[in-house]
């Protein structure tokens, strides 16, 4: 998952809303207004209980379905709930993990990662059933059978060490993005340098989209030995800046009042990329 | 280097038919260090080839003052990638003729990459180019812009504003105003990275300004 502000760009039509309207609109007869309201509540991080309740209810919405059987409102509700930080959403999001719409499952896995609640771990592990062999492209759709990237990343962030034997085989998955997610999770769960180093090597990939992704992963795990390689990578400065911010924050998290030398080194690299 | 030789190098850039040939041609033109190549190097910033653009930026920086006016006049209003490279070149050359352009870019450009480059550059212009009265007016203008930019909603732009302000804070006339702003940022900044950058600025500036601790 790339941390960029572009993912928060507003839809083309952006009617001004109040919090009350947005909550009310989640039940509006105009389904596009429901969809917009769910996005809006997440974008502006409206974490008041009434908004969370309404979004949790929207996870069960049956009205807004596309011809392909997709559930756009459920997707947006699941995405928004991750941003609101209210763990009451966890049971509903866990139920979303075995819902028919792939993108609802993906959004739920990402939001469960953000909410940081370990009770989601068994349900996330379920999505790895069948291992790499089952992790195939779905014919006619631009995705695999499960949202493996999101699941692997969530398991790493949720400190699911019990999942290590299930995650490890995904290091050899044919899709590079899935490999990176597995590397990222394995590093988080084992702190073994070898996984971080493989992500550093991925900064040399010939595909710029994959280089950006590896950068984001290194930032997410705060892998300090990558700092120089990140600054040198052949990727736009914005992405490098975000990745180094991730490294810096991991350093600062140590809670020491004064700045460490390594934190200062990371900031010097960030300054050079402005 | 004769005119004809430079024209040949320019043609090689304009006619390069692969990314690798473009990079090589730009490197050759940069090596010639001829002011006649400036417009071509500026054009390369918009070719969407990062390696060539980085080489061109380096070449423009080496040409220094001669590149300033063309960079200002040929700023690409329709391509923010090209604009960010041009602003980085102007920031590195640090000629005070770029002051107004950098202020506008830092305050109003829609592209964060452009705004960050401009904010950093605003702090480090070569103020000694100006006489005393011009200098304090120019520095006050740069400070005013950066103080405003340091309240932006985007963390990376606030971070760049801190870097710019840190450079300006070594000026005796400005140290108190900027020191007070740093103190306020240190208290109220929500982003840990920006807060850390302010702490670093305060630490580096401690010979110049007092913090409230």
Low-confidence stretches of chain A: 1-10
**What is the makeup of the main sheet of chain B?**
none
SSE pattern of chain B? HHHHHHHHHHHH
Strand content of chain A: under 5%
Average pLDDT rating of chain A: 92
Structural class, from helix and strand content of chain A?
mainly alpha
**In terms of structural class, how would the helical and strand content of chain B be classed?**
mainly alpha
Helical amount among residues of chain A, as a percent range? 55-70%
Low-confidence stretches of chain B: none
Q: Report how far the terminal alpha carbons of chain A are from each other.
A: 23 Å
Molecular shape of chain B: elongated
How would you portray this structure in words?
The complex is a heterodimer of chains A (274) and B (213). Chain A is mainly alpha-helical and 274 residues long. Chain A is built from 16 helices and no strands. In chain A, helix 5 runs antiparallel to helix 6 (102-115). The model of chain A is unreliable at 1-10 (pLDDT under 50). By secondary structure, chain B is mainly α. In chain B, helix 2 runs parallel beside helix 4, helix 4 (50-63) packs parallel to helix 6 and helix 7 runs parallel beside helix 9 (132-149). The longest helix of chain B is centred in the middle third of the chain and has 18 residues, at 132-149. Chain B is elongated and about 60 Å long. The chains are: A mainly alpha (274), B mainly alpha (213). The interface between A and B is medium-sized, with 18 and 22 residues.
Q: Concise description?
A:
The complex is a heterodimer of chains A (274) and B (213). Chain A is mostly helical and 274 residues long. Chain A contains 16 helices and no strands.
Helix and strand topology:
The complex is a heterodimer of chains A (274) and B (213).
Chain A: H1 19-25, H2 31-43, H3 49-58, H4 72-84, H5 90-96, H6 102-115, H7 121-126, H8 131-134, H9 148-157, H10 164-167, H11 176-190, H12 193-202, H13 208-221, H14 227-232, H15 237-252, H16 261-272
Helix pairs in contact in A: 1-2, 1-3, 2-4, 3-4, 4-6, 5-6, 6-9, 9-11, 11-12, 11-13, 12-13, 13-15, 15-16
Chain B: H1 3-15, H2 19-32, H3 38-44, H4 50-63, H5 65-73, H6 80-93, H7 99-108, H8 112-123, H9 132-149, H10 155-168, H11 175-188, H12 192-205
